[in-house]
Amino acid sequence: MQQYFVNGRAENPVIIRDRDTAKHMFSVMRLVAGDEVVLVFDDGIKRLAKVLSAENHSFELIEDLPDNVELPVQVTIASGFPKGDKLDLISQKATELGAAAIWAYPADWSVVKWDGKKLAKKEEKLAKIVLGAAEQSKRNRVPEVKLFDQKAAFLEQLTGFDKIFIAYEETAKAGDLSALARELETVETGQKILFIFGPEGGISPKEIELFEQAGGIKVGLGPRILRTETAPLYALSVLSYALEMKEFKSLDS
Amino acid sequence: MQQYFVNGRAENPVIIRDRDTAKHMFSVMRLVAGDEVVLVFDDGIKRLAKVLSAENHSFELIEDLPDNVELPVQVTIASGFPKGDKLDLISQKATELGAAAIWAYPADWSVVKWDGKKLAKKEEKLAKIVLGAAEQSKRNRVPEVKLFDQKAAFLEQLTGFDKIFIAYEETAKAGDLSALARELETVETGQKILFIFGPEGGISPKEIELFEQAGGIKVGLGPRILRTETAPLYALSVLSYALEMKEFKSLDS
């Protein structure tokens, strides 16, 4: 069933005020009175809703749905500004894979230089991609999108996390493939986790130092060299496996 | 260091006969006598090689390199023909993530219909993408690319695997998130594993039946709905984690 995110708190009946959402509902999907969709408000609870009036864009809330597909931890992905449209792919896929937030920062070795205007435009585009992906993958939350125009502003945010992982391929090359697996065994439900990735050229030694000073732990992501846009997808998939499949496994057995 | 795959067995000296490879080496990278690269022949061993003559496209093999980044199992990814250029993305990313082979088959619910000519052209394009990705991610093997024009031909291949997983989101929806984790504990080094994915519309009930008759096991890939091109990346990442990180972990501790 089609799912939509609606800003604000759940009220009954609901009037859809967001223009893009209303357009998709009544022009693209051509919903008519009696049709059902899933609406998700700021509380992250999915609710079954029935169109009252297509003309007034109004819905009646029928019932809460128990379905919760969020990761048991809040994962923020932070990518060094990559080239071209790679952030589009990262944002879409990271949303499908359960990220709570998708950030990007100007890394020492980022080739692209995005100024304030370009950054705002890019952020807006990514927010749309993320909203669409969150609806399609039936998320309970829309990931936050944030592009930092200064690295200092990004560094200031590092204090807000329980764990910070630095994706660093030299760690894997040095033969330690297990750092991430070891660390994930200590992760607890509800924790805030930050995963930092470099741009195409990687993370500079100076940045590694800064991230480590903030408590970051270097981890490899397998023995193969992953492109900058692939690494976050690997990390999120592994988190899902370690915290969702294995967790459920222990409950089962 | 730049890596190239060379068809055939290692011989010393080596003459590069593949036109595209020679062009990349001597026109794009402008290698000159004395420059070093890594060459990988059919045996999958990386060898340090030094340019003898840029004019003759010849190299001297210096030494074998111990570096092996292949997954401990041979994983084949089989996607139902997806729309547009999605196979390009799947092929590139599956190569980075360690797939041994990338297959696609005409699924019941595939929207696209590719005939023989289109298929051959597409296969050729994918082979180039895969070669480039294998070089960039420093693989020891170039994954096989195979597009089946008939589903029957694909089904005939199912007997050649030790384990067949069917990516099936209903399994996860039904609350069993642990099927894949349980199965991966029984996987042994060197086994041949097939992972079957549906196209955008999913795998038809008839196909599920056929795949199960061939020994396929339905597994979910986490609680979120993944797009057809994202599911193989999740599966490969999880295999890497379960078989590479965890394996190394047990050796460490």
From TrEMBL, chains A, B:
<dbReference type="InterPro" id="IPR029026">
    <property type="entry name" value="tRNA_m1G_MTases_N"/>
</dbReference>
<dbReference type="InterPro" id="IPR015947">
    <property type="entry name" value="PUA-like_sf"/>
</dbReference>
<keyword id="KW-0808">Transferase</keyword>
<keyword id="KW-0963">Cytoplasm</keyword>
<comment type="function">
    <text>Specifically methylates the N3 position of the uracil ring of uridine 1498 (m3U1498) in 16S rRNA. Acts on the fully assembled 30S ribosomal subunit.</text>
</comment>
<dbReference type="GO" id="GO:0005737">
    <property type="term" value="C:cytoplasm"/>
</dbReference>
<feature type="domain" description="Ribosomal RNA small subunit methyltransferase E methyltransferase">
    <location>
        <begin position="70"/>
        <end position="239"/>
    </location>
</feature>
<dbReference type="GO" id="GO:0070475">
    <property type="term" value="P:rRNA base methylation"/>
</dbReference>
<dbReference type="InterPro" id="IPR046886">
    <property type="entry name" value="RsmE_MTase_dom"/>
</dbReference>
<dbReference type="InterPro" id="IPR029028">
    <property type="entry name" value="Alpha/beta_knot_MTases"/>
</dbReference>
<keyword id="KW-0698">rRNA processing</keyword>
<comment type="similarity">
    <text>Belongs to the RNA methyltransferase RsmE family.</text>
</comment>
<dbReference type="GO" id="GO:0070042">
    <property type="term" value="F:rRNA (uridine-N3-)-methyltransferase activity"/>
</dbReference>
<dbReference type="Pfam" id="PF04452">
    <property type="entry name" value="Methyltrans_RNA"/>
</dbReference>
<keyword id="KW-0489">Methyltransferase</keyword>
<protein>
    <recommendedName>
        <fullName>Ribosomal RNA small subunit methyltransferase E</fullName>
        <ecNumber>2.1.1.193</ecNumber>
    </recommendedName>
</protein>
<dbReference type="InterPro" id="IPR046887">
    <property type="entry name" value="RsmE_PUA-like"/>
</dbReference>
<dbReference type="InterPro" id="IPR006700">
    <property type="entry name" value="RsmE"/>
</dbReference>
<keyword id="KW-0949">S-adenosyl-L-methionine</keyword>
<feature type="domain" description="Ribosomal RNA small subunit methyltransferase E PUA-like">
    <location>
        <begin position="18"/>
        <end position="62"/>
    </location>
</feature>
<dbReference type="Pfam" id="PF20260">
    <property type="entry name" value="PUA_4"/>
</dbReference>
